[in-house]
Design a protein that fits this description.
The complex is a heterodimer of chains A (234) and B (258).
Chain A (H helix, E strand, L loop, with lengths): L1 H7 L4 E2 L13 H14 L4 E4 L20 H18 L3 E4 L6 E2 L6 H12 L2 E5 H11 L3 H7 L5 E7 L2 E2 L4 E2 L8 H14 L3 E5 L7 H17 L7 E2 L1
Parallel strand pairs in A: 1-2, 2-3, 3-5, 5-6, 6-9, 9-10
Antiparallel strand pairs in A: 7-8
Chain B lengths: L2 H13 L9 E2 L6 H23 L1 H7 L1 H14 L14 H7 L7 H18 L9 H4 L9 E5 L4 E6 L2 H9 L11 E9 L2 E7 L1 H11 L4 H12 L4 H15 L2 E6 L2
Antiparallel strand pairs in B: 2-6, 3-4, 4-5
Helix pairs in contact in B: 2-4, 3-4, 3-6, 3-8, 5-6, 6-8, 9-10
Classes of the chains: A alpha/beta (234), B alpha+beta (258).
Chain lengths: 234, 258
């Protein structure tokens, strides 16, 4: 099926298992399989998240947060470089929604991401919902985040819905995109130019027409920002 | 604190309920650190429970929500996930049930779990090109005794309590499940055109297939069947197996043993 899709459309590969920020050794079995798949399907890029998924052989099946320390920055930069060397291509690294702030952190999330992108020479994937969710959860200014992201490194924007827990917002991809995220998307589009947008929906699926309406709205917002629409829904 | 130590504590907080990690987390403006950390703690269990519910939907109906919930909890607590791919997390569930009280006393539940696992495993097995029955026609008569078979990687053979497949079929159709009966029956599972299939196999076909998968040549398999059946109907039976194996898409390669 993927071959048939690839024959008609460009594709990108978006992963959750690279565990790029883990202190566990890089999983070269996984990377070999990823490289082989990429060689077969020639994605426009491969993306994964700025997170870790487990240590000591355990997998927690979650995008776990990173403390924004110099040690963590050095560690992640080194790992991204090694993975890029192995895959023979740049990675796109995505910001995650996080729910805890580490006392150990020495810098803001956006400073960490900017430094990481420059030093590892990687691309970035900006998840607008994650900026919104994390800004609420950690009470930071969204504009500071967006303004710090190096625009020339961002290859894709993500939009998604989240769950409300009252005191925090959880990135569940099972709700419609909320108005605040649409508004933020409207603000960020002009900054990042003509790049693609992906709507993420993993569960609690509405009728297809409702998903298409979100895609049409994303296209309209992008068009308002004088950006040729290249959107896709997933 | 070093990153490695912090990640170890974070993981222990999720898997072992060890709250040492809370010393490294700040309260937010709206709530306390324990509530925030719970998002990760609870998400881990919810995700694993979801993986198991997706992989064993009929077992869930068969033993009921409450018992399935206890089974899932026991399984999650027994060992953390070590698989990056969620698909493989539940693969040990039937073995866990077989080894652990009170589940080990429930043969029908264990066999239903094995049944569902076999369907999933068949679905996820590697691809391989299928051989057609035309390949048999190319074998000279004198070469038949040293004919060897290779089977599609999706093929599995299971011995199940009598009635397991009927329970599966009834519950999958949201009908009332019949009771299992004493004794066992053999089933094969395989995948064709992206879909998993199963069918019962009689004792002689089961033995022929088991021996063929072990690499035994056609002449030896026939000799075993003659010995087992103690009659002369073996030729017809074997012709029936072979044509069914090719019709089902079970055989990937024929070769002649030296």
């Amino acid at each position: 099926m993927l071959e048939r899709i690839r024959n008609t459309y460009p594709i990108v590969m978006h992963g959750v298992s690279m565990s790029i920020a883990s202190t566990a050794p890089l999983d070269f079995d996984y990377l070999r399989a990823l490289k082989s798949l990429a060689s077969r399907f020639q994605p426009a890029w491969i993306s994964d998240h700025l997170c870790w998924t487990g240590v000591h052989g355990v997998n927690l099946h979650d995008l776990l947060p990173v403390p924004y320390t110099l040690e963590a920055l050095d560690h992640v930069v080194d790992r991204i470089r090694r993975v890029q060397d192995f895959l023979g291509r740049r990675l796109a690294i995505e910001n995650v929604s996080s729910y805890v702030t580490f006392a150990e952190s020495e810098m803001d999330e956006w400073t960490f991401i900017r430094e990481l992108a420059e030093r590892a020479d990687c691309w970035l994937l900006l998840d607008v919902n994650n900026v919104f969710g994390s800004s609420f959860n950690h009470s930071f200014d969204q504009a500071s985040f967006i303004g710090a992201v190096p625009a020339d490194r961002v290859v894709q924007l993500h939009l998604a819905g989240h769950s409300e827990a009252g005191t925090h917002k959880i990135d569940t991809h099972d709700q419609p995109i909320c108005e605040e995220v649409w508004s933020l998307y409207h603000e960020v589009c002009p900054r990042f130019g003509s790049i693609s947008t992906m709507i993420e929906r993993d569960d609690n699926f509405p009728p297809f027409d409702e998903l298409m309406a979100e895609l049409d709205r994303a296209r309209a917002v992008a068009a308002c920002a004088r950006i040729p629409a290249q959107g896709a829904a997933a | 604190m070093k990153l490695a130590e912090l990640q170890m504590r974070f993981q222990a907080g999720i898997v072992e309920d060890d709250n040492a990690i809370l010393a490294s987390i700040a309260d937010s403006r709206r709530t306390d650190r324990a509530t925030l950390f719970e998002v990760y703690h609870d998400a881990y269990r919810l995700r694993l429970a979801e993986f198991l519910s997706n992989d064993f939907p009929v077992l869930r109906v068969h033993i009921g929500e409450e018992a399935f919930g206890r089974l899932v909890e026991d399984y999650i607590e027994s060992a953390p996930s070590r698989q990056p791919n969620a698909r493989w997390y539940g693969t040990r569930l039937p073995d866990f049930m077989q080894e652990t009280a009170p589940w080990r006393r429930n043969r029908s539940a264990i066999d239903l779990a094995r049944f569902e696992r076999a369907l999933s495993d068949a679905f996820d097995a590697p691809d391989a090109p299928i051989s057609t029955i035309d390949a048999l026609r190319e074998i000279c008569d004198e070469d038949w005794p040293r004919l060897a078979f290779e089977f599609h990687p999706s093929v599995r053979i299971l011995d199940l309590e009598n009635g397991t497949a009927q329970i599966y079929a009834a519950l999958a159709e949201e009908e009332e499940a019949p009771a299992t009966q004493q004794g066992e029956e053999a089933f094969i599972f395989w995948r064709t055109d992206g879909q998993s299939f199963y069918r019962p196999v009689a004792d002689d076909e089961r033995m022929a297939m088991m021996e063929a998968r072990r690499g035994k040549i056609f002449g030896d398999i026939c000799a075993l069947l003659v010995f087992q059946r103690n009659d002369t109907g073996v030729t017809q039976r074997v012709a029936g197996f072979l044509s069914q194996w090719f019709a089902d898409g079970l055989v990937t390669r024929l070769s002649l043993s030296d």
